[in-house]
Amino acid sequence: MPTRHRAFLILASLGLLAMASIGLALTVGSFKVSYGEVLAALLGSEGGAGDVVLQLRLPRALAGFACGGLLALAGALMQVLLRNPLADPYVLGISGGAGVGAMFAMLLGLPVLGVDGLAFVGAFAAMLLVFGLAHGDGSWTQTRLLLTGVIVAAGCGALVALMLSIADEHKLRGMLFWLMGDLGQSAQWWPAFAALAVALVLAMPFARELNLLSRGLMQAQALGVAVGRLRYAIYLLASLATAASVTTAGSIGFVGLVVPHLVRLATGNDQRLLLPASVLAGGSLLVLADTLARTLIAPQQLPVGVLTALIGVPVFLFLLSRQPK
Amino acid sequence: MTRPLLEAKQLVVEIGGKTVVDRVDLSVASGERIAILGRNGAGKSTLLSTLAALRPPAGGALLLDGEDAALLHAREAALRRAWLGQFQSDPFGSSVLETALTGRHPHLGRWDWESKHDAELARAALQAVGLDGMEARQIHTLSGGERQRLAIATLLTQAAPLYLLDEPLAHLDLNHQMAVLELFASTARDCGAGVIMVLHDPALAHRFCDRALLVYGDGRTEIGTVDRILTADTLSELYGYRLRQIEDRGHRCFIPE
Predict the structure, then answer these.
(1) d(CA B255, CA B244)
(2) Averaging pLDDT over each range in A45-54, A78-87, A183-192, which range is the top one?
(3) Cβ pair B171, B150 in contact under 8 A
(4) Closest Cβ–Cβ partner in B74, B110, B111 for A226
(5) A224 — contact with chain B (CB < 8 Å)?
(6) Which of A284, A293, A297, B35 is 20 to 30 A from B121, alpha carbon to alpha carbon?
(7) Nearest C-alpha of chain A: how many angstroms from B212?
(8) Which residue of A has its CA nearest to B104?
(9) CA-based diameter of chain B, in Å?
(10) Count of alpha carbons within 13 angstroms of residue A291, beta-carbon side
(11) Do A212 and B106 touch (CB under 8 A)?
(12) Partners of B196 in the beta sheet?
């Protein structure tokens, strides 16, 4: 029996986890800062340690949290939209489109803002292309949408491979890091954070209708859901959330697929709890992964996408194995 | 004179450009039970989902409780009729109780959560179909018959005045077939619900329904009281197979020759 009380308790504990992960990200690094100094810096006192925390670590942690939250939210929405547990934010070609845009910008040697801008343009173009093709005859069934997305993603993958193979040696490393997902290059943290807030606020009023949608289109319509309009809205919302994340930090894998499943295994499939819990869990996971990525072999940095998978896979397998059948 | 729960006027149903039901008139009053019979692929399910306002008719008009169904919001329609589909697919896990509670959706506001009262209604519905004690079970552990009864319980939780049932007896053993038909018969008798159901057994249709609608699949339809219309001759033509009629204590039975 789903209740508000239970949802509140779970969300409160995940909120604490999120704060702890950000707190850890602010203290840990090649330059150690104590919790006291972090607190002093956050409260506004000037100093050497304060600069590291406020100028470098805090924006990066916040951007990471926002991207993780956006990906987990988009993944949860895509899984409902396609009624497919294997769906993730990238399955419909959004990251492929963004990848083509970003690689092209890097190939031309554009600055960070140009890369972000073209990545967003690419993501948006992929979204419109998939929607236009899948919607062609007005049916836009789940299978048609999924197939169209997968094909567009494959086409984008080929273009990305083409650009990688003709790129100069010295640009390759940056391009590969972008493709694996990297928070070190994010210019600003607040656009992703604002996108996360807006997406969650827009999705939550429809959470119970999404529960019904996951049980079938006709079923949902018979129970009083305006299915057609809801599916358009969810597609748009999930795509834009993905685009916002990919533009900020590249295509970080795994978070969008696995975090909704983790939360579903732990708390059940009620979207009213699943959506906000996925945001908090996804954000925390990405912040933790990024903290590891920049400390494990410091001063060298690893791409965060590698770490999200390395943390997520064992946790996921553990949860799956303890499920009573 | 009370308003009919459902009124179809000159309703046309098409599947892929082919007219399967041509200008049918149908009115369902409170407490009335109607069977839809026909061959596989004759358009029974498509007709039923059209009557449920889940797909637009190719022609004619449909009124639900006196209001044009085309203008009704999905939620308004859900308060006037409940629809049981043929297929339940569950890609994601859910408990039996949660599934039964989905029937309360049209009764709840946007920010409402299911209350104790809603849970009581769901538990009562589960008890009515013999699923009490299984509230916490995951739905993918249920058998086909249990899953079908859970879908019926969800319908009862929805508590609409009109039930549209597409093969409600699918996957059910004999005992539960009779239980489900008795359940809807008593809902019609005691609560004044209207029931339209797609059935494959003309004997059960004769026993549990007031009228029958025969769908031939080429546009022709025929409607009448079960005593008049469910005879060996009409059914032999409907199914394209010679049937013989046997009467036993007022119940009709049809056996293939």
Answers:
(1) 5
(2) A78-87
(3) no
(4) B74
(5) yes
(6) B35
(7) 24
(8) A223
(9) 59
(10) 24
(11) no
(12) B34, B164
Residues 160-199 of B with CB under 8 A from A: none
Band the pLDDT of A325: cuts 50, 70, 90: very low
Q: What is the mean pLDDT of residues B201-208?
A: 95
Query: What pTM did the predictor assign?
Result: 0.91
pLDDT tens-place string over residues A221-262: 999 999 989 998 999 999 999 999 988 888 888 899 899 998
Kind plus residue range of the DSSP H or E element containing B37: strand B33-38
Phi, psi of A286 (to 5 degrees): -70, -35
> Which pair of tokens denotes residue A293?
């990525």
Looking at CA atoms only, how far is residue B91 from chain A in angstroms? 6
- Confidence check: pLDDT of B186 > 60: yes
Phi/psi at A322 (5° precision):
-90, 0
DSSP lists the bridge partners of residue B254 as B245
Partners of B101 on chain A (C-beta within 8 Å) are 1-2
| Contact B116/A at CB under 8 A | no
Closest Cα in chain B, distance from residue A269 (Å): 7
Q: Taking CA atoms, what residue in B is nearest to A325?
A: B141
Chain B residues within an 8 Å CB radius of A222: 52, 54, 78, 82-83, 85
Q: Is B10 left (phi over 0), alpha (psi -120 to 50) or beta?
A: left
Contacts of A1 in chain B (CB under 8 A): 97-98, 101, 114, 119
pLDDT at A36: 78
pLDDT for B105 beyond 60: yes
Out of A12-16, A50-54, A187-191, B228-232, least confident range: A50-54
B82 close to A (CB below 8 A): yes
Is this complex scored with an ipTM above 0.85?
A: yes
User: How many CB pairs below 8 Å do chains A and B form together?
Assistant: 84
Eight-class DSSP state of B135: T
The one-letter amino acid code at A321 reads S
The tokens describing B147, both together, are 């899953």
